[in-house]
Specification:
single chain; alpha/beta; Rossmann fold; 2 domains; two-stranded parallel sheet; 9 helices; globular
Length: about 280
């Protein structure tokens, strides 16, 4: 079983509170887990399976590894097998940076992200070379907002070649995008929209490589945030240090690690079956 930190929670009971902005008592967490456990065990009984003692036991017996880095684990660093992040490397159109002087911004957003339209307005006001990726954006909308210094891409593009000259990455906090910017040493501005993205964004903010925009998402809030990210050297320094720490990490390396884990698991499964068959043969004879 492979996933990022959010997809494979820590093996503890009760599960930790992931709504960290709320003070939730342990008693409520325990009650919630008991309700979930009762439902799981009802299914176990219906299929004549042994009941579980804790929700995290549902993952027992499965080969597990996290396709992320310890610092980017949504639940924080833990005793786990970290293979490194996997994000898209190939495919899509190869595009060039738009005209204009100044630091370059690469943004990947969707219209349903709170503050999307305000961020578009703030980027246009900033007037620095910017590429905004908005999947499937209407052609009329693109023509209304695009300019010589502000290009809008609606399809898949190759992001990796753009990162070397990128001064700021903006996203809604998807784990793949956070790790891709992080490994490239690009400071980040994050407009999250759900709990998983919040947890991941908090982790990169703790590294000092990002600012997370929570409630303040008006143009008058976003413009200063852009200036701060582009002009305060601490973000560039922290981003470069993080990238340097994991200079040898790549998606290809992570995929190879997944393949090794799968092969190892299959070999162990075949060995166990062979031993079981041998034991049965001895009993019969």
């Amino acid at each position: 079983m492979f996933g990022n930190g959010f997809e494979i929670p820590p093996a503890q009971s009760p599960y930790p509170n992931f709504r960290t902005w709320e003070k939730i008592r342990d008693s409520r967490l325990i009650k919630s887990e008991r309700l979930a456990l009762a439902t799981i065990n009802a299914v176990c009984r219906a299929h004549r399976q042994a009941p579980l003692h804790a929700v995290h036991e549902i993952f027992f017996g499965a080969t597990q590894a996290l396709i992320t880095l310890p610092e980017l684990d949504h639940y924080g660093t833990r005793a786990a097998d970290y293979l490194g992040p996997v994000h898209a490397q190939l495919g899509g159109a190869r595009v060039a940076w738009p005209e204009g002087e100044g630091k370059r911004i690469l943004a990947y957003l969707r219209p349903n992200v709170p503050g999307f339209h305000a961020m578009v307005a703030a980027l246009k006001i900033h007037a620095t070379p910017t590429i905004l990726i908005v999947p499937n954006a209407p052609k009329a909308w693109v023509e209304q907002h695009a300019s010589q210094t502000f290009t809008i891409q609606t399809g898949s593009i190759q992001i990796e070649p753009l990162l070397k000259a990128c001064s700021l990455g903006i996203s809604y906090g998807g784990s793949g995008t956070l790790s891709q910017f992080g490994l490239a040493g690009v400071p980040q501005l994050v407009l999250l929209k759900n709990v998983e993205q919040y947890m991941g964004a908090v982790r990169v903010a703790q590294l000092g490589v990002a600012i997370v925009l929570e409630q303040a998402r008006k143009v008058e809030d976003l413009a200063p945030a852009l200036d701060q990210m582009l002009n305060e050297a601490r973000f560039q320094h922290a981003s470069r240090e993080f990238a340097k720490r994991y200079a040898k990490v790549s998606p290809e390396q992570a995929v190879a690690g997944v393949v090794r884990k799968v092969e190892q698991s299959q070999l162990e499964s075949l060995a166990a079956r062979s031993m079981g068959a041998a034991a049965t043969s001895v009993v019969v004879h």
